[in-house]
Amino acid sequence: MRFSGYTCDGFYDEVFESEGVPRGPAANLVRRIEGLSDGELRRRQQAADRTLMDMGITFNVYGHEAGTERVWPFDIVPRIIDRDDWSFLERGLQQRIHALNLFIDDIYNEQRILRDGVVPSELILGAKCFMQPCVGLRPPGGVWCHVTGTDLVRDGDGQMYVLEDNLRCPSGVSYVLENREVMKRTFPQVFEGLPVVPVEDYPERLLMALQRVAPPGASEVNVVLLTPGIYNSAYFEHSFLARQMGIELVEGRDLVVIDKFVYMRTTKGLKRVDVIYRRIDDTFLDPKVFNPDSLLGVPGLMEAYHSGRVALANAPGTGIADDKAVYAYVPQIIRYYLGEDILLPNVPTYLCADEQQRQHVLANLDQLVIKPTNESGGYGIVLGPRASKAELEECAAHIQANPRNYIAQPMLALSRVPSLVDDHFEGRHVDLRPFILYGQEIYVLPGGLTRVALKKGSLVVNSSQGGGSKDTWVLRSRKADDSNSCVPGPHATSTQMVCSS
Questions:
Q1: CA–CA gap between residue 6 and residue 15 (Å, rounded)
Q2: Helix or strand or coil: residue 421?
Q3: What are the distances in angstroms from CA 160 to CA 121, 142, 166, 199?
Q4: What is the mean pLDDT of each successive set of 10 residues along the chain, which is 501 residues long?
């Protein structure tokens, strides 16, 4: 199969500079694919689909008419990222997570950034995701956001932007690992000789980051993963990560708090738990503190956490940093805490809570993307240029009724990657979700999850709304591997720098 009929259609293409001219790092991939015999790539795609089904790699869609559980959609043509480009993204993400961690700690303690007027107090203290029970908390090791998934997009000019931060329960890393495994099983000849940076050690690194925050004195640290259960959209990932790390997958009913210690019920009696990697939202964690109707959490868990007898990752309250209204202030947050300019820019954002910006949004709804500030999974988003008049009128009414709950951004021309469609290639829009671990160091998993809008012309990459994924290859280069990007850990002095790999 050849790329001779493939066109970029005026979009930035991650593989081709122009029709028939591959970008340098992708040249080997293009050559190898074009060297396959007729029908071979299609057979490999079918083999990959069968492997995904046999391995039970699935995700759940709430309310989907075809059933709750679906096989993970996967396109066999990978995305390529040059190591030099990746090194810059890595530094930008480390900078961002470092600053956001300092921001969360400040918000729940001194609130200096509010007193200094850098971020409006009413924006934070009136936020749905500001957790009053977390005021005064000091998480073990000074780290609030141990696991982050930050969404990046590339616009038509080639510039990479941060689209949003996900600091509460970011999902998708299991598909990064499984995509790589599927590619190795079904397409090994494409891997041969290409210097693809491995990703397989992520579970080990995650476990080390979790063990690091265990309460002092724990001789044999017991880490568990707390899931809402099998009906959660990310249940596959919860079970996958628990299995990969060799820890127990538990639900709230499996845990009990006694004398401010957390125990797991086992067939041999109670076993103390030291660290909980929780994959349920803050408000469901403890019915005694948050939502009293929650059946997913553990009564008394927050008291045990406050007492320092159990650690939670991510720490409760981290959602204040991924509120989409707070996102607009991240450049100022980085400058305030680190004294640096932002490396990875935000997408220009209008806050509907601001009177002047709101009027601009309402006057230009048909040209903007409107987002609710506390939704995820693509829910509630209105693409102005593609919305009907009635949809725009409804959107305007929602904004006027609750301005704080909406932001607006220009509609970007997301970059594309060639994807297999029947017996030829077509460009499909993509984004990128790298995963960042904050433990002894700030580590960025090379590549991350490339999500792809499988429908022609669609900009919606969420799997819950018809999106799929691709394997993401970061290619080594001697120049980049000789460099060493460093950021300070939460307690580092000027001579104690923490370095990424």
A1: 11
A2: strand
A3: 30, 30, 17, 22
A4: 89 94 91 89 90 81 59 90 94 98 97 98 93 93 94 94 93 94 85 86 96 88 96 91 98 97 96 97 94 92 95 96 94 98 96 95 96 74 92 95 94 94 92 95 95 87 79 77 43 34 29
What distance in Å separates the CA atoms of residue 484 and residue 86, rounded to the nearest whole number? 12
DSSP characters over 236-292? HHHHHHHHHHT-EEE-GGGEEEETTEEEEEETTEEEEE-EEEE-S-GGGT-TTTS-T
Res 500: pLDDT: 33
Predicted confidence at residue 227, as pLDDT, reads 97
Count other Cβ atoms within 10 Å, centred on residue 21.
11
Which three-class secondary structure state does DSSP give residue 186? helix
User: Tell me, what DSSP letter sits at residue 321?
Assistant: G
Nearest to 122 by CA among 276, 279, 258, 323: 323
Q: What is the DSSP letter of 500?
A: -
Over the Cα atoms of the chain, what is R_g?
A: 23
The C-alpha angle with vertex 150 and arms to 341 and 464, in degrees rounded to 5, equals: 150
Q: Which of 235, 237, 175, 207 has the alpha carbon at shortest distance from 313?
A: 207
CA distance 295 to 253: 8
The pLDDT of residue 490 is 44
